[in-house]
């Protein structure tokens, strides 16, 4: 069974193991040969291990975010740390996507640098729209809990059709954002989602829904990967992928709330 996600982490096929006769076919010697740095004696991936590492990454992200927020409150211009954090975080994501066995080293760094970005962008939004950050955090937290509950109790079931629709929508959004960025940079033209029109607000709400649906894909792949007893480093890999989705969701909440506030 092939499990996919929009997240470059959570759709990496290096860890897909086929089941034959109900038994997972897992050749440890081949895996060690492929990743010389891996010691499978350290154990295999578990859901609890992934949860623990997700909390570690979240804590590191909050540390980075607080650092930028504090410096901004002290009069420091957050642009350097915000842009620098975003660039370094993106580079670490790319490296981890191609070198997932290094996730144990890359994931903490990503969390910290992404925290710098989050802290800076949050400070900028908060300065313009007081109270928006706590609203965005609350929206992200509630959305995560609702999606987790819906998945845990199998109210929402992830099948191949579900995956295909969510992945297609996510790729469409990513393509639109890329075209919008190029149009703004090259032609100084802003697409409709930059404004605070009802259409722009509706678009942001749609993006939040798609980001939330990606959480189901993340939950599903984490559960399936643990069931297939993938290598231990996949806990960091999966936790990093889940954090990427949460960051995206938070940023989209900031955008939506800023548009609503600008109309008041």
From TrEMBL:
InterPro entries: BaxI_1-like (IPR010539). Keywords: Membrane, Transmembrane, Transmembrane helix. It comes from the Bacteria. The chain crosses the membrane at residues 55-73, 79-98, 110-127, 133-153, 165-187, 199-221, 233-251. This is Bax inhibitor-1/YccA family protein. It comes from Flavobacterium agricola.
């Amino acid at each position: 069974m092939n499990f996919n996600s929009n997240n470059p982490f959570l759709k990496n096929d290096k860890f897909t193991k086929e089941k034959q006769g109900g038994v997972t076919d897992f050749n440890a010697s081949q895996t060690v040969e492929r990743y010389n740095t891996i010691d499978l004696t350290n154990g295999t991936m578990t859901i609890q291990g992934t949860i623990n590492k997700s909390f570690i990454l979240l804590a590191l992200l909050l540390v980075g975010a607080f650092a930028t927020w504090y410096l901004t409150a002290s009069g420091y211009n957050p642009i350097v740390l915000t842009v620098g954090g975003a660039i370094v975080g993106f580079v670490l994501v790319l490296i981890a996507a191609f070198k997932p066995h290094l996730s144990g080293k890359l994931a903490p760094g990503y969390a910290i640098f992404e925290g710098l970005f989050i802290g800076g962008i949050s400070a900028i939004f908060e300065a313009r729209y007081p109270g928006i950050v706590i609203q965005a955090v609350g929206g992200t937290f509630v959305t995560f809990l609702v999606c987790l509950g819906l998945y845990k109790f199998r109210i929402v079931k992830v099948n191949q059709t579900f995956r295909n629709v969510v992945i297609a929508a996510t790729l469409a959004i990513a393509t639109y954002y890329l075209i919008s960025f190029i149009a703004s940079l090259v032609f100084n033209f802003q697409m409709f989602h930059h404004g605070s029109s009802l259409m722009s607000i509706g678009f942001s709400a749609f993006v939040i829904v798609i980001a939330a649906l990606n959480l189901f894909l993340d939950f599903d792949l984490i559960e399936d990967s643990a069931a297939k007893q993938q290598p231990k480093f996949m806990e960091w890999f999966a936790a990093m992928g889940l954090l990427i989705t949460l960051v995206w969701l938070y940023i989209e909440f900031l955008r939506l709330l800023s548009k609503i506030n600008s109309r008041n």
